[in-house]
């Protein structure tokens, strides 16, 4: 039953998160933590990142085929995101047993930030010449790389793809439309997440390889389910979900996860 719950959850999370440019790590972590009983440590973060990578590949390739991708913005953001991912691994190792509480508090801050920024973007008026599925305005490289560095750091620390950071940063600092920012966010994840995984696998001093060996079923089944869910979700989102609703879904998912972590933190303090 536990395995069925986790497998079903992985497919559903990948299906829902793929159309909005997120890897699903914000739900993969609590699924493995509460559903499979794994402690929040380097092992869980590495597994969550593997699943997130599978989602980013499945959905990202679909978005690229449809033309929802901006090469210059993605390459610029990668400078900051890759650096941030390595910094994040160092933070994970430094926190050790204190990772659980810090993880949840950081998650709350990140989710509130993303929710406010995306809401403000949705309310701001669009100009007549703005192309929702392309780029409007110039790239602010320093701000873009700084924002991507924050995303990369949180990717390693929280076991997420950090699309919740990349999407609004790409919209605000590179002038990308909703679908193009989503596709570019997924492309960033495709490069950054494996770097974070490799760094965690080689530096986390908590018996990571032993833990992974003791949970062999996830190595094959869960990534396949994540890819299939992501491809299906991306196809459904591109063909069936309007541009106006794409960001509304994004905000709804962020709000749900935010409530979950707030309740968690309140239970820790009570």
Features:
about 270 residues, mainly alpha, 11 helices, globular
Beta-strand content estimate: under 5%
Mean pLDDT: 80
What's the total count of β strands? Answer: 0
Instruction: Estimate percent helicity.
Output: over 70%
The total count of helices amounts to: 11
The coarse silhouette is: globular
Structural class: mainly alpha
Instruction: Spell out the helices and strands N to C.
Output: HHHHHHHHHHH
Number of domains as seen in the coordinates: 1
Which regions have little confidence, pLDDT < 50, spanning 5+ residues? Answer: 127-131
Radius of gyration from CA coordinates:
17 Å
N→C terminal distance: 31 Å
Largest sheet, in brief, is:
none
Explain this structure to me?
The protein is mainly α and 270 residues long. It has one domain. It has helices at 2-17, 25-35, 42-65, 71-95, 99-123, 141-158, 163-174, 178-203, 208-214, 217-240, 243-269. The chain starts with a helix and ends with a helix. Mean pLDDT is 80; it is low at 127-131.
Short structural description:
The protein has helices at 2-17, 25-35, 42-65, 71-95, 99-123, 141-158, 163-174, 178-203, 208-214, 217-240, 243-269. By secondary structure, it is mainly α.
What is the element layout, followed by pairings?
Blueprint: H1 2-17, H2 25-35, H3 42-65, H4 71-95, H5 99-123, H6 141-158, H7 163-174, H8 178-203, H9 208-214, H10 217-240, H11 243-269
Helix pairs in contact: 1-2, 1-10, 2-3, 3-8, 3-10, 4-6, 4-8, 5-7, 5-11, 6-7, 7-8
């Amino acid at each position: 039953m536990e395995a069925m719950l986790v497998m079903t959850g992985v497919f559903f999370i990948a299906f829902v998160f793929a159309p909005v440019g997120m890897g699903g790590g914000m739900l993969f972590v609590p699924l493995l933590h509460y559903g499979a009983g794994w402690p929040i440590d380097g092992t869980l973060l590495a597994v969550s990142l593997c699943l997130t990578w599978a989602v980013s590949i499945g959905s990202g390739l679909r978005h690229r085929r449809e033309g929802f991708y901006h090469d210059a913005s993605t390459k610029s953001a990668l400078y900051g995101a890759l650096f941030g991912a390595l910094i994040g691994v160092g933070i994970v190792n430094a926190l050790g047993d204190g990772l659980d509480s810090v993880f949840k508090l950081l998650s709350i801050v990140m989710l509130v930030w993303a929710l406010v920024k995306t809401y403000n973007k949705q309310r701001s008026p669009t100009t007549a010449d703005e192309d929702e599925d392309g780029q409007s305005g110039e790239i602010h490289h320093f701000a873009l790389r700084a924002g991507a560095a924050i995303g990369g750091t949180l990717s390693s620390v929280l076991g997420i793809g950090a699309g919740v950071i990349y999407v609004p940063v790409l919209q605000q600092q590179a002038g990308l439309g909703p679908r193009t920012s989503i596709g570019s966010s997924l492309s960033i994840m495709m490069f950054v997440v494996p770097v974070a995984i490799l760094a965690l696998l080689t530096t986390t001093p908590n018996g990571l390889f032993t833990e992974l060996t003791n949970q062999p079923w996830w190595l094959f089944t869960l990534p396949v389910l994540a890819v299939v869910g992501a491809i299906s979700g991306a196809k459904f989102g591109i063909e069936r979900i309007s541009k106006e609703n794409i960001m509304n879904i994004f905000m709804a998912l962020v709000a749900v996860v935010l409530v979950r972590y707030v309740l968690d933190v309140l239970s820790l303090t009570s």
